[in-house]
Amino acid sequence: MLQHTTISHGNPSVQEYATSRPRVIGWLRSAAILDGDWGTSVAYVMGIGFALAGYSSFWHLSLMLALTTLVAINYITICRLYPNGGGVYSSVYHRSKLLAVIGALLLAADYVITMALSVLDACHYLNIENPVLWAIVIILLVGGINWFGPKHSGGLAIIISAFTLATLAVIVVASAPTAIQAVHIERPEGGLFHNWGIFVGFILSLSGIEAISNMTGLMKDPTRDSRRAILSVLTKVIIVNVFLGLAMHAIPGLNPGDHLEDMLRFLGEHYVGVWFGWFVAFSLGILLISAGNTALNDLISIQFLMSVDKELPSPLRKLNKHGVPVIPLIITMLAPVCVLLIIHDIETLSHLYAIGVVGAITINLGSTATDKTMNLKPFVRVLMIISATILFLIEISIAVKKTEATIFATTVLIVGLAARHVAQRKYKLQIPVPAEAVPAVVPPRRRRKLPSAKYLVALKDGNEKLLKFAIDEAKTKNAFLFILRVKEIAVGALPEKLEMPTNGTEHRIEEICNEASVDYQLIQIPSYEVGYTIAEQAATFGVERIIIGAQKRSLLENVLKGSVMRSLSALLPEEVQLVIFGG
Fold this sequence. Notes:
Blueprint lengths: L13 E5 L8 H9 L6 H12 L3 H25 L6 H5 L4 H29 L5 H15 L8 H28 L10 H10 L7 H6 L7 H28 L13 H9 L5 H32 L17 H17 L3 H24 L8 H24 L1 H27 L23 E7 L4 H13 L2 E10 L8 E5 L3 H12 L3 E8 L2 H12 L3 E5 L5 H7 L2 H8 L5 E5 L2
Parallel strand pairs: 2-3, 2-6, 3-5, 6-7
Antiparallel strand pairs: 1-4
Helix pairs in contact: 1-7, 1-10, 2-3, 3-10, 3-15, 5-6, 5-12, 5-13, 5-14, 5-16, 6-12, 6-13, 7-10, 7-11, 7-12, 11-12, 12-13, 14-15, 14-16, 17-18, 19-21
């Protein structure tokens, strides 16, 4: 529902906007998107584990799944506590801005490696020659597509997730008899610290768990939908990893390092047939590329939010005509490309990945567990503290043993904190203009007579023809006219409020309305789902008619973003008229 409404009058230099929070994602769509990030860990975790521990890796895999379950249970609580977004940046910001920024930067490091690791592994599964080069090409192509700010990925995510689940289920069923009867699991060699190092080396099943907490702001019922999504994907992750782990251990003669990049394809070929390997390759390849796309959008979103909060330079807030932050998109495209130009193997990338995601989750859980203002049962709080402690020990172990991971994370933190210092210094140097020095000039408002109807016109930019048509319609029927300017922002997690400079369009709208002597109200709202926001405002003000302009979009834009007209007409009740002006 709408949190705030800003009415534009006068001549302000900066207009403060309230944001619309469309709750359009159900649990199934949330689970599919989460599976496209969290569920992809199965594609590379077993290959890496076997490379590190051979036929004793099942013990380490089991411990990793136990920790994953513990963290998942904690994130059910996180999602309940933060229905408008419970990612590490949002949940920690009210306690410590610096700690929230550090957590966000660690998460940003995770997103960069997720893109590089996922897309590179997809190329290995697809058996593409020169996988590093093609991974770079795919990342750039995905970034180019996101220039249009694709929104309707939920339906596609469900299809990809279902196809992948069916493919993995075939391998599980085909391998189950052999896996149960002929499994060969060796005792772990070495002492406690040696096996702890192996466990830390492929702690990858935590991949993507933060994604669900960032989605709560768009869920229809954050508590219920997040719980169902987490439990459904967790069940899939556990079952698939356990059964396929047993299947891997039932194959004699495997050497550590064999099929490190494509273990699941090898299992499909071994237990089902060589022909089935292509089904595995295609399903996992698409799922891994989808995971890279999810990470790309999350990284854009977190840069934009930090810029809005003045934690990063203001140029990161500049949008293209499709509502996509331009500079964050460029940074997000180039960062994983630079990583792939330096690092070419899956195992090393997995080391870089872990330090970011473990650090971010540790900060999120630790901050929430120690926040006395949160309504937490003692058992839940203790469970969260235990989880944060274990993850903290893992983070320290990674930092000590994986030099390349420490260098990477430190580099990201230095660059991010330096950018934060520059941004805050610039904001402090700006001299605020006293409110009384810029007096508001309220245009004369002329109430003709009590209106007999309410109309709403949705404007994009300064469409004067559409505005004048709406004014004529309102005057004909003696209707009060709501003028809604929706600023499309292709970022899923929007802040509560957003400051954006005006461009003079607001004043021109007021001038036209005053000249026409029409009773009106100007409303400006940034939104992630334009159709939803128009319908939301129509319901809020109880209008009888909505007037919009005919869209002029390319075929590619319609495929990627869908039609505002279609989504709006599907949301409106029958008694509300939808008028489309084609002038």
